[in-house]
Amino acid sequence: MKFLDHIIAALERTGVIPGEEDQTRKIILNQAFISIGFLLTFLFGLIAFFNKLFLIGGFLIALALILAGTFFYLRKTKNYSLSSIIFVASSTLLLLFLSITGGTKGTGLIWLPVYPVLTVFLLGPRKGSYVT
C-alpha cells in the first residue's frame, strides 16, 4: 500500500497549479490514465511479442511510446487538453486496430463499451459525444 501512496503523491506533486483546483484535478487524472495506459499497452505488447504475435506487439509498443511521450509532455506543460486529445486518439487507434484484427483470440471487441465513457470523461460531454 505504501507503493500506491507514493505513486499518488508523485502525481499530486507534479500536477498542482496553485488556485486552479479543477485544472489540477484534470491533470492528475490525465497522468493516472496515461500512466495506466502506458503500463498496460507496454506489458501486453511484450506478451504479444513473446507469443510471436509481432503485428499486435509492435502496434502496442508503438502506442506505449506515444503514451510515454504524452505523459512527459503533460508533466512539462500541464496542457491537459491536448494530452487528453492525444490519449483519446491513441485509444481510438487501439480500438480500431483491435476491431479490425480481432485482437488476441478474438477478444478485441470486448473493449468497445469502454470507449464512450473514456471519451466523455476526458474530453467533456460535448466533445466526447462528438468523438463517440
Description:
With 132 residues, this protein is mainly alpha-helical. The chain has one domain (2-131). 81% of the residues lie in helices and 0% in strands. It is built from six helices and no strands. It has helices spanning 2-15, 21-50, 54-77, 80-101, 114-123, 125-131. α2 (21-50) runs antiparallel to α3 and α3 packs antiparallel against α4 (80-101). The mean pLDDT is 84.
Largest sheet: none
Q: What does the average pLDDT come to?
A: 84
* Number of beta strands: 0
Number of DSSP helical runs: 6
Structural class by helix and strand composition = mainly alpha
**Strand proportion:** under 5%
Q: Any idea what the radius of gyration is? A: 16 Å
| Contiguous runs where pLDDT drops below 50 for at least 5 residues | none
* Helix/strand order, N-terminal first: HHHHHH
Give the distance, in angstroms, between the N- and C-terminal Cα atoms: 36 Å
Globally, the shape reads globular
Residue share in helices? Answer: over 70%
| Count of distinct structural domains | 1
Q: Could you outline the blueprint of secondary structure elements for this entry?
A:
Layout: H1 2-15, H2 21-50, H3 54-77, H4 80-101, H5 114-123, H6 125-131
Helix pairs in contact: 1-2, 2-3, 2-4, 3-4, 4-5, 5-6
